[in-house]
Design goal:
heterodimer; A: four-stranded antiparallel beta sheet; B: six-stranded mixed beta sheet; 11 strands
Chain lengths: ~110, ~110
């Protein structure tokens, strides 16, 4: 049973480009969470999704960031018109149901040049 | 003031030593998580607890809800335990909306 898969592992974008980060949860997990870890800072919650629904996006920046978890396929975190301040590690986690431990992916390290 | 405070920030130990990492929080919580972040960056969930004590191998996690404090203990530490240990609290809102501590960087020397 593969763990949470994130790709790409590393992503380099120029300012103004779009970044698309993918997360495939563990098999049987229908709850997906995205977190951001800025350099030298702690992790911060961004968004919680279930299949086809955004449950809590209180940690998402209001502009340029969006997330989806379609019926088929991975969850996508999309950042439009990236800026240098978006450079960070983005982690995805999944769980099978509420109030269960989280399983994390290895993260995507986004660098904006 | 951070809602989740960890101490110490950095910890160096000799192989075999007993290690304690502390986490204090200032709000009511429904659960507390301990995570391990490897030097390569990957994150592993170690414990999720809401009361009492849990043990897994050489790792023990305790929580005192009244005192708003949790500890992570490592017995017979080993260089492979070198990592950043992160405490995170669940305020009982939506699942996964955690508040994270800044982490404790542990280095175990052979």
């Amino acid at each position: 049973n593969a763990g949470v898969m994130q790709n790409p592992r590393h992503l380099v974008r120029r300012r103004g480009q779009e970044a698309r980060l993918r997360c495939s949860p563990m098999k049987g997990h229908s709850h997906v969470y995205w977190y951001r870890q800025l350099p030298e800072e702690g992790l911060k919650f961004m968004v919680y999704l279930q299949k086809e629904n955004i449950i809590d996006e209180s940690g998402m920046p209001k502009e340029r960031f969006s997330a989806e978890f379609p019926k088929e396929g991975p969850s996508i975190l999309r950042i439009q018109q990236v800026v240098r301040g978006d450079s960070a590690a983005y982690f995805c986690a999944s769980s099978p149901y509420q109030n269960s431990p989280l399983h994390f992916g290895n993260g995507t390290r986004l660098t904006v040049t | 003031k951070n809602e989740v405070e960890q101490s110490p920030q950095n910890l160096t130990a000799q192989e075999g030593e007993f290690i304690t990492i502390n986490c204090s929080y200032s709000v009511g919580i429904s659960a507390l998580h301990w995570l391990q972040q490897h030097p390569g960056g990957g994150i592993v969930s170690l414990f999720m607890l809401s009361s009492g004590k849990k043990k897994h191998g050489r790792l023990i996690a305790t929580i005192n809800i009244q005192e708003k404090h949790s500890s992570l203990h490592i017995t017979a530490s080993h260089p492979r335990d070198s990592a950043v240990y992160i405490c995170a609290v669940d305020l009982g809102g939506s699942q996964g909306n955690l508040i994270f501590g800044k982490g404790t960087k542990l280095s175990v020397k052979p």
